[in-house]
Design goal:
Distance between the termini: 41 Å
Largest sheet: 6 strands, mixed
Radius of gyration: 18 Å
Shape: globular
CATH architecture: 3-Layer(aba) Sandwich
CATH class: Alpha Beta
Helix content: 40-55%
Strand order of the largest sheet: 3-2-4-1-5-6
Number of helices: 6
Order of helices and strands: HHEHEHEHEHEE
Structural class: alpha/beta
CATH superfamily: Phosphoglycerate mutase-like
């Protein structure tokens, strides 16, 4: 009995030291555990893409008309995926806005196939799309199983602010409990560049 106790203690300490080596504080450790248990949504703002808004000739599907990730943004997106994998999150259901900077961020995470979800599209300059997008996104969230695998939504500042009431920088994210109706409970906030 005493031997089992010490084996248990050693396993726990090894787990904690592994988290410490991965640069994870206790709050993040709790969020990582939540991501692994399912029933959560990780909303990530696209990685660094210099500038604001989009050019006047913006067209979905034509990256040459959009503000895109730069090399720092691509490295940031890869680092987010590496951070998730180094903390035991090896796959997720990944959805993205149709904007090229979001799709590229989602692909570079390498967390699984990426599906376009128009409800995640920006309404920064297209304010008439705000309510229809948010209604569609809430409907999408309500249909997800509350005990399913982690869902990653790569989107824009305006979308995250409207859903989570949080302002995030490029490459930052919020973890939300998958509740059937808004407002969604925020489990925590991630700054992947730490």
């Amino acid at each position: 009995m005493r031997m089992r106790f010490w084996v248990y203690i050693m396993i726990c300490l090894a787990g904690l030291s592994g988290l410490a080596m991965a640069g994870v504080d206790s709050d993040q450790a709790e969020m990582i555990a939540s991501m692994k248990t399912g029933g959560n949504i990780l909303m990530i703002r696209h990685a660094l893409a210099p500038g604001t808004g989009d050019p006047a000739n913006f067209r979905i599907g034509d990256c040459s008309t959009q503000r895109n990730l730069d090399d720092r943004g691509r490295e940031q997106a890869r680092a987010i995926g590496n951070w998730l994998r180094s903390n035991g999150i090896t796959s997720a259901r990944v959805y993205s806005s149709q904007w090229c900077r979001c799709l590229e961020t989602a692909e570079l995470l390498e967390m699984g196939p990426v599906a376009e979800l128009p409800a995640l599209n920006s309404f920064y300059e297209l304010t008439r799309n705000r309510e229809p997008n948010l209604k569609a996104l809430r409907k999408f969230i309500a249909k997800q199983p509350s005990d399913g695998a982690l869902i990653i939504l790569v989107t824009h500042l305006v979308t995250i602010s409207a859903i989570a009431d949080e302002s995030v920088s490029s490459g930052e994210g919020v973890l939300l409990k998958l509740d059937k109706e808004a407002p969604y409970e925020m489990v925590g906030r991630f700054n992947f560049s730490k």
